[in-house]
Prior knowledge:
Layout: H1 2-36, H2 41-55, H3 58-70, H4 76-89, H5 92-101, H6 106-123, H7 126-154, H8 169-186, H9 189-202, H10 207-220, H11 222-229, H12 234-256, H13 258-273, H14 278-297, H15 301-311, H16 331-359, H17 364-385, H18 392-415, H19 419-426, H20 428-445, H21 451-481, H22 487-522
Amino acid sequence: xxxxxxxxxxxxxxxxxxxxxxxxxxxxxxxxxxxxxxxxxxxxxxxxxxxxxxxxxxxxxxxxxxxxxxxxxxxxxxxxxxxxxxxxxxxxxxxxxxxxxxxxxxxxxxxxxxxxxxxxxxxxxxxxxxxxxxxxxxxxxxxxxxxxxxxxxxxxxxxxxxxxxxxxxxxxxxxxxxxxxxxxxxxxxxxxxxxxxxxxxxxxxxxxxxxxxxxxxxxxxxxxxxxxxxxxxxxxxxxxxxxxxxxxxxxxxxxxxxxxxxxxxxxxxxxxxxxxxxxxxxxxxxxxxxxxxxxxxxxxxxxxxxxxxxxxxxxxxxxxxxxxxxxxxxxxxxxxxxxxxxxxxxxxxxxxxxxxxxxxxxxxxxxxxxxxxxxxxxxxxxxxxxxxxxxxxxxxxxxxxxxxxxxxxxxxxxxxxxxxxxxxxxxxxxxxxxxxxxxxxxxxxxxxxxxxxxxxxxxxxxxxxxxxxxxxxxxxxxxxxxxxxxxxxxxxxxxxxxxxxxxxxxxxxxxxxxxxxxxxxxx
Length: 523
């Protein structure tokens, strides 16, 4: 049994290194690819499957999908398609093991690969090191399978699966639960699948038992997403619920028509290999499970999405609904989500100012919006503080976001000053012009490609305001000296001018940094 545990450990370590390495190599490319090829339902499913096969991790695909939904780059319905595709793509592990893992000497192949990979990760240039991690992970993965084979071969007498044959409802339920528990304990459906395939190859279990274990493992694989969704964003919770509902409903259907599934599996396996190879058959069974589920759910994506939206409604502070802590592990996605949050905060600030200028006093609604914005900015700052960037592109994007955060913080400080109400009366014409401009800003903030337009308008407005501040300030003091106005009133008007100048300046600089981010992101 110790050999089995060691084999599972090596397999999990190898899978983790392989997945992390592939994500590091192809992270930005995968992100652009997913955004480009998920416009339709079928293309979303195909993209999810292809990406999962590439990175060998449905969890990585799920996290990236959450990020895109949070950033507004994918609709929730499109994300359902990607999750369905990820389930299909996750079956590739079974194919690799059944076609390669039991046909050659894995230890002979794995050890040189591990050696080369480790040396590459230690002594190669930085750009090459990540490829070393991928190689080492690949080698460890197959070394783990080799140890599993050895352990299963010697542990057949210790495994009591012969006492739970798949011939009664109780036994079937028990096998499914065992498969579910295997995946929850290992925290990886690929490792549970590897252990099941190895046990089947060693003769410790028969094909039907293995198939029911796979059904349970498909339910158990949703546990990681469910755990990650606790206390996370609404997008994460809905995505986790999508994963659970898809796998659970599909599992129930497959269990009900199990005998037909087994016959279809046998027919396909014989057609491919000429005889019924059980390990290959199990990989085919796993694939059929996900494909049939996809065929059932794809036509029902709309109603399914509406159901999930009702099951997981938006939380109170809508401005921070997208800031999911699990995204911090994927810096590029986390930065994109932060940018969208900044944009939402800017829009809410614009609406708050319009409320202030319409009522010409601090109202309950205005104060409520300001408190919500302040809370959102605080949460965003904590979220950004946890992001660790490694690429030059992510570093540049993060700096732009941090500059935006700083100007939004200063903008809120300006709006909290007493002069905000005085300016409405002492500089009425300037504030009326600003109110008209805010209406334009609000309209453009809702359009994805208009940030540069806003920045240009505000830059021009800020320059005009700076010029007006200099001229009017001198005029007010000259009138005071000529006894045309009281000095206190002149000072108050100057304070109001300075307040408006700072307000417009920070608006301009915040939008200019957001436009800069958008420009970098589009290159």
